Amino acid sequence: MTPDRRTFLSAGAVAALVPSTGRAEPEPKVAKPGQTKNTKFAVNIEMWWRKERDYLKRLEAAAALGFNAVELWPWENKDQNAVAETCERLGIKIVQFTAWGFKPGLNDPKNHNQFVEKIEKGCEVAKKWKCSMMCVVAGDDIKDVPQEKMHENVIEGLKKGAPIAQKHGITLILEPMNIRVDHKGHCLYGSAPTLKIVKEVNSKYVKILWDLYHMHITEGDLCGHLREGFAADMVGYIQLADHPGRNEPGTGEIHYPRVLKELKALKYTGYVGLECTPLGTEEAAAQAVYAADNW
């Protein structure tokens, strides 16, 4: 082939792909981006619509974008009946909420009685909200207490909470954090120690909340570590955000289409929590999530 002919054909191929304006066209918007193609997403209404103080309006905004599931943080500051009624009206499922946060720490035995009481109350809320999972957090570092001992205390506390969860048919999902960016001083981070804790608790009602954002920052190799977690049957729930920034997929360095395909290969059929802050508008973030799941 002559150079002139090769040049002509190359130029023609490019011209066929690029519109007459000379600019690549953006992905077309989807009317209901929450209705994704491969993965079920639960939008976190604590991090989305943050300027809206009314949680019921946040639920309505989620439904307007096509999402049929949400996740929340603590239940104490919300009108439980109103939330339940609004979800029923909108056809929205609450996938999980936080039953036990950072303080007081589960890693201190003096807090275990309070933990048990809180889990009991949380299970009642979960039943009202028709929710089957509650997030629990290990706690921040305790001065002069070795990490191994704190983890032993977490195991002890979860063993006390597991029978309550089992009685109500609720799964406790333990979330490890990252200490490089968001939660310096937290006592639990990375998959290895979290897998060890859940294994020691030895209850099918205690699993891991596998936040891909935290895991990426802590240890990387997202797909490889996910396979290990699923092989051990200890993953209860997945969350995501891109990095850096903790925004929606496509804003950082994580190639989420590949990770979401891995979840499909691992036969994960649960929801993936969108615990990320929209970089711009919520509508634009939902479009980005749809694009990441459109493989």
From TrEMBL:
**GO molecular function terms listed in the Swiss-Prot or TrEMBL record:** isomerase activity
InterPro entries documented for this protein: HyI-like, Sugar_Epim/Isomerase, TAT_signal, Xyl_isomerase-like_sf, Xyl_isomerase-like_TIM-brl
Xylose isomerase-like TIM barrel domain residues are 59-279
Keyword terms, alphabetized: Isomerase, Pyruvate
Q: Pfam families under this entry?
A: AP_endonuc_2
Name the catalytic site residues: 175, 275
Family, similarity comment: Belongs to the hyi family.
Protein name in UniProt: Xylose isomerase-like TIM barrel domain-containing protein
